[in-house]
Design a protein that fits this description.
About 25% of the residues lie in helices and about 35% in strands. The protein is of the alpha/beta class and about 180 residues long. The strands form two sheets. Strands 5-6-4-3-7-8-9 form a seven-stranded mixed sheet, with helices on both faces. It has a two-stranded antiparallel sheet with strand order 1-2. Helix 2 crosses helix 3. It is globular and about 40 Å long. The protein starts with a helix and ends with a strand.
C-alpha cells in the first residue's frame, strides 16, 4: 500500500502527560511499522531538499532519532551521512560543543573529518523544540567550516520558538 504524506502524518500518536505531567509527547515510531510510510516520509524530505536548488554535500543526523531518517535521506541524495553523537561515543579525533538542556549542560561531538571546509549540510532530526540540540549541531558544522543550508524535522513545536535559536532555514513536516 502506498502512503500519502497526510497518511504518514496521521500515524504520529499523541500521549498526554508523558514523560511527565503537562507534556504532550508525539510518537513517530508508528511510522516505522509501515515501510511504505517511511519511504513516503523520506521521499518527501528529499523532494523538499532538492527543491531548494542548492548543492547538498552531507546530511547530518542528531543522536539518536536523526539516525533513523538521516542515512536514508543521504542515500537518496547520493551524499555522505555524518552523525552527531553524545560525548564519548565516537572514535578518533572529534570536535565538541557544549550546549544547555532543560536540566543542565550536555556535549555533542562529531568526528573532525566528517565535513570538509565549504561543504553544504542539511541537518535532520525528529523534533524541533527549544532548538538547543540543533543549534549545537549547527555550531559543530561551523567549527568545521561547513554551511548549514537547512534544518529539517518531522515535528516542530512552534510555540517553543526553537527556530529563533537557529541560523539556517527550518522545515518541518508537522507544525504544532
Amino acid at each position: 500500500m502506498a502512503f500519502t504524506i497526510e497518511q504518514v502524518k496521521a500515524l504520529v500518536r499523541e500521549f498526554p502527560d508523558f514523560p511527565s505531567e503537562g507534556i504532550l509527547f508525539r510518537d513517530i515510531f508508528p511510522i516505522f511499522r509501515h515501510p511504505e510510510a517511511v519511504e513516503c516520509l523520506v521521499n518527501h524530505f528529499v523532494d523538499h531538499i532538492r527543491a531548494l536548488n542548492k548543492q547538498v554535500d552531507v546530511v547530518v543526523g542528531l543522536d539518536a532519532r536523526g539516525f533513523l531518517f538521516g542515512p536514508l535521506i543521504a542515500i537518496k541524495l547520493g551524499v555522505p551521512f555524518a552523525p552527531v553523537r553524545k560525548r564519548g561515543k565516537l572514535p578518533g579525533q572529534v570536535v565538541s560543543v557544549t550546549y544547555m538542556k532543560e536540566y543542565g549542560p550536555d556535549v555533542f561531538e562529531m568526528q573532525a573529518d566528517a565535513i570538509e571546509s565549504g561543504k553544504n549540510v542539511v541537518i535532520v532530526d525528529d523534533l524541533l523544540a527549544t532548538g538547543g540540540s540543533c543549534k549545537a549541531a549547527e555550531d559543530l558544522v561551523a567549527l568545521m567550516n561547513g554551511n548549514v543550508i537547512l534544518d529539517a524535522f518531522v515535528i516542530n513545536l512552534v510555540g517553543l520558538e526553537g527556530h529563533k535559536q537557529l541560523k539556517a532555514p527550518v522545515y518541518a513536516l508537522i507544525e504544532c
